[in-house]
Amino acid sequence: MRNLLLLGLLFLANLIANEVGIIDTNDTNQSNANFQSQKVLYLNFTDTPKRVINGEIFSITFKTLSTVQDFINIKYDLSNYNDLKILNNTPYRESDSTYYYNTFYFLTTGNSAKLPDITASLINNDKKIVYKKTTLYGKKLNVVTLNPKKDFSNIIADSFELSEYKTTHFDNKHNIVIFVAKAKKCHISAFHLNKIYKQGIESITESFFDSKITYYAIIDKNIENFSFTYFNIEQNKYLLINIPIIIHDDSVATQSDLKPKDQSRERLKMLIAGVITLISLIFIFWRKKYIYLIFILIPLAYIAYLAIPSKEICIKEGTNIYLLPVHNGTIFETTQTKKHLQKEGNVKEFVKVKLKNEKIGWVKNEDLCKN
Question: Among positive and negative, which fits the CA dihedral 182, 188, 194, 195?
């Protein structure tokens, strides 16, 4: 009897212990579930544009508030956006005692642009596991498409300024304009001019803060003033960029010196020197001052100097002929055979040559024939 009572007490105690264990487990699971469903991140836009132009670079800023402190970072995922190109996958972040301010930059690529949905995630301080998420839903943007004139350069920017420019002779029908421009908040690789014989980018530095481009345009000789427009976002209007066409005749000391010898000017100089010589001869023989014949040697020597033909150089088969004397520049012709061309000058690692069609180009020193 005593043994049966003891077994009953043991059974009752075990039953009570199991019941307590079940209740504790459920309470723990419920607590974890409540913790996981608790919202700890709050996101709000602080700066979004009321209007954007198709082709414009713009930014959005939103603030993030976290109600917990045990994290090492906040990760942002952008999704569900239209007609936009994200320019920085990691936001530019500032913070104060309460909020994190995050900025993303975008390029508008179409008329149906919509801001992305931004999902923020907390990364755990211990295991670096994303365990909290909140989504800020993007809205559709008011996109305006420009209707510019034919002189528009396809540039939309806060600013676009020429830092230097130069015009030189290219061939009998064309001049070449070379310029360097700097811009802010500009998709500068979109630069393009209408109704140009030939054009292209020689070098470019792309950034949505500050960008830079070196550009060339081959234009007709009858153009005396070369100009184009761009759209200034801050002033909300088209601004004119003007380049006066002044043919430079300087030495080959700069990289952008593309000017060959102007044969018409050389002939004019020879003619003037010849006239001076003839007048001097008439004067000497008329006055019979033969001692002055020595002074005629000066214009005669100058005529002889001008009459000396340019030096010919040999370039190898397969040589690239560049439009400008810069590495990775535009190649407008490649020789199929070994050629002998007229040398017009040299700049550092390049030699300036005149082709048979009177065009001017540049070849690398390494492409000259050794013999």
Answer: positive
